[in-house]
Amino acid sequence: MGFSCGIVGLPNVGKSTLFNALLSTIQAEAANYPFCTIEPNVGRVMVPDPRLDTLAELAKSAQKLPTQLEFVDIAGLVRGASKGEGLGNQFLAHIREVDAIVYVLRCFEDGDITHVEGSVDPLRDWEIIEMELVLADLDSLEKRQQNLQKKAKGGDKEAKAQLDMVERCLPLAAEGKPLRLVSVSDEEERKVLKGLQLLTTKPVMVVCNVDEGSAATGNALSEKVFAHCKAQHVPAVIVSAKIESEVAALEPKEKAEFLGELGLKETGLAQIIRSGYGLLDLLTFFTVGPKEARAWTVKKGAKAPQAAGVIHTDFEKGFIRAETIAYADYVAGKGEQGAKEAGKMRLEGKEYLVKDGDIFHFRFNV
To answer: Structure pTM?
Structure first.
């Protein structure tokens, strides 16, 4: 599994249309009224990676297995969601389960599609989304504080560490600021903050949903969003959910031609995946053989045994070493044998840091 992204936005901004397009399904009903998505829709898509195609061809693999990306389409938030307005806290609970949050902002005018706020203003929508998440975090922090104070007085070290973090977060939340702005000095503090499961500590990216004519260049509304994203250090992409819907139904060759006619080099899905990978510090490694060529995902900084554990926990427990070939060397050698003959296969141990594109064969003993 690569990672999961919760698609969040106000009603009628194109969330479900985008979700349907990305999954090439009709799992989420896209309709012109608020709350048409009552339960979160979850779907997985294959992550496109041309390297996997090349490896499968060189190894004459019987099948290709890309890594996957999970999207969760969460029903539209409205003002007061943190206090139970609309479908309220059940939406907020669903957001806690995802690795990253995608804010979908409406950056198109259309008189036939109503906006819950009465006008199109993506920065105002951003503020509403973020404020509701911050208020939910503030409520969570205030509820925990008293309980942690009691435990900390009793000498509970873990409670004391959590209380210290809660008291650092509270002033920021009270000012309406997202808690991803909290400064952490080391890995231990990062773990404590993550353990609080706060909504606004999750990485965020923004999707500007524009009209078809603005898909390649953006428009005045998306320009405002991009400027705000730059100031907030938040990645953003421009996508036309309508175009994505049309592209989803096409064959690969037709897709390329259709995108080319619109001045687009890639689909919105590809943009979202690339931004998401960067956002979560993910990288891809491969296992290749005659039966299958397969892509796997790990966090940057993962060591060889951890990568082995992604495939099977026994591989990590009994890890001995990893036969390793860099992607470029595998391709240059026209496969595993050629790479070996060129002296490009390495034996790496437990401390080896996985690099993007590594091709592994793990040796282990259980």
So the answer is: 0.82
